[in-house]
Amino acid sequence: MSKGTTYIPFYDFSPSLNAGYLKQILPLLVSHNVAANPINYAIWYDYVAGGNPALTKAVNLLLEEHKSFDCDNSVELYRSHICNASLESFEHINKQLHKAIEQATSAINDTYNKAEETNDSFQKKSVILENSTISDGLKIIFQEIIQETKSLAMTSQAMQAKLTEANHEMEQLRTELAEVRQIATTDGLTGLLNRRAFDMTLVEIIDQSQPDTACLTMLDIDHFKRVNDTYGHTVGDNVIKYVASLMRKHAEDHHHVARYGGEELAIIMPNTSQEKAIQISENIRNAMEASRLQRKNDNQSLGTITLSIGVARLQVGDNPESFIVRADNALYKAKQSGRNRVIHS
Ligand SMILES: Nc1nc2c(ncn2[C@@H]2O[C@H](COP(=O)(O)OP(=O)(O)OP(=O)(O)O)[C@@H](O)[C@H]2O)c(=O)[nH]1
């Protein structure tokens, strides 16, 4: 069982016990119509194993309310009761630690500076005292105080060095997290945003935009199956990469070009009128139609490959789903009406 919500769930039961859980979990997944994916398995594993009362309560509540274990509910259960590790949570922890180290460094700096100042002033006064007529006992006490402040200054200096090192490590970690984020949001084939990043960006842009000021363009390569079947999957991959490069070239700097899935690509266009979105889409479509692609190894022509494109503009009350549906419907119309064209909703 995972021990409550952690960053990494921990399971330490024996194989035979796990086999027993498996036998109980499968019928539960079937009877509650739950998809047997790893997230759901983890939820029902904890449910069967017991020992995670908050999760058991949350699952029972969903059952009582006859709610489905759809993707949203499952991810919510998993994040709230089993594992809340995410790039965002690691980045949050990193930021908090960085802040704490900065505060500690600043406090240590103050201590060091004060100790140095006090030390300086004591040093000056000790010269005066050396020549004064105060008793030797007092002179010894004074020397001891000077030693103490010196050692405080040295300790502060050593702590300062350690904190600077810790800060450096945190910065390195932050760079690594940024690299992981980059990998997690990038499509491996095209280098465009992947579907996860597309979904997140679309939510943000809808949140930030007024109706009519943003557009969504969905693009699909025509008869792509034929390309794969005739020239092979590797050539197909290269065609997708080529289309991605055309999209990057024609989209504006503030646009978000993404691979929506398979041979379907998309551009989220904030601060862009529908006319502008159509014009950019036409430029991409024209450029593709005019391209003379050849197979690398034998220069065999791939013939003309075309694109169908659907454009939608953001409307009042839109959410990501409705926005995508409108762009997708326009794309579908482009396909239905003969392909190699741009249609807006
Ligand atoms: N090479 C390659 N092919 C892919 C990739 N993803 C999806 N496909 C292929 O894309 C093709 C999509 O075919 P369909 O959806 O039937 O449509 P189509 O042939 O493009 O025809 P229309 O969309 O109707 O013009 C399928 O053959 C998929 O296997 C990929 O990453 N690489």
TrEMBL record:
- Catalytically driven reaction(s): 2 GTP = 3',3'-c-di-GMP + 2 diphosphate
Domain (GGDEF) spans: 212-345
Domain of life the protein comes from:
Bacteria
Q: What is its EC number?
A: 2.7.7.65
Q: Which Pfam families match?
A: GGDEF
Q: Coiled coil located at which positions?
A: 156-183
Q: Which UniProt keywords apply?
A: Coiled coil
The top EC class, named as a word, is transferase
Q: What is this protein called?
A: diguanylate cyclase
Organism whose genome encodes this protein = Methylomonas albis
Q: What is the lineage of its organism?
A: Bacteria, Pseudomonadati, Pseudomonadota, Gammaproteobacteria, Methylococcales
